[in-house]
């Protein structure tokens, strides 16, 4: 499973990008996107997805 960022709620703050252990998050047109091929929801690294933990916008990052 992977996560996705809801473009309409992403503020472009970039808090999520450096937290991703799989380098699955990148900036695209002022917002951030998650590469579903790289996203593992942080399994094997953390107990919870780190992008969700640091995102200041509730509900911005959801299961794809």
TrEMBL record:
Keyword Metal-binding belongs to the record: yes
Q: Where is the 4Fe-4S ferredoxin-type domain?
A: 1-30
Q: GO molecular function terms here? A: 4 iron, 4 sulfur cluster binding; metal ion binding
Question: What cofactor is needed?
Answer: [4Fe-4S] cluster
What InterPro entries does this protein's entry cite?
Answer: 4Fe4S_Fe-S-bd, 4Fe4S_Fe_S_CS
The record's section on PROSITE patterns has:
4FE4S_FER_1, 4FE4S_FER_2
Q: Which UniProt keywords apply?
A: 4Fe-4S, Electron transport, Iron, Iron-sulfur, Metal-binding, Transport
Show the Pfam families listed in the entry: Fer4_10
The identity of this protein, by name, is 4Fe-4S binding protein
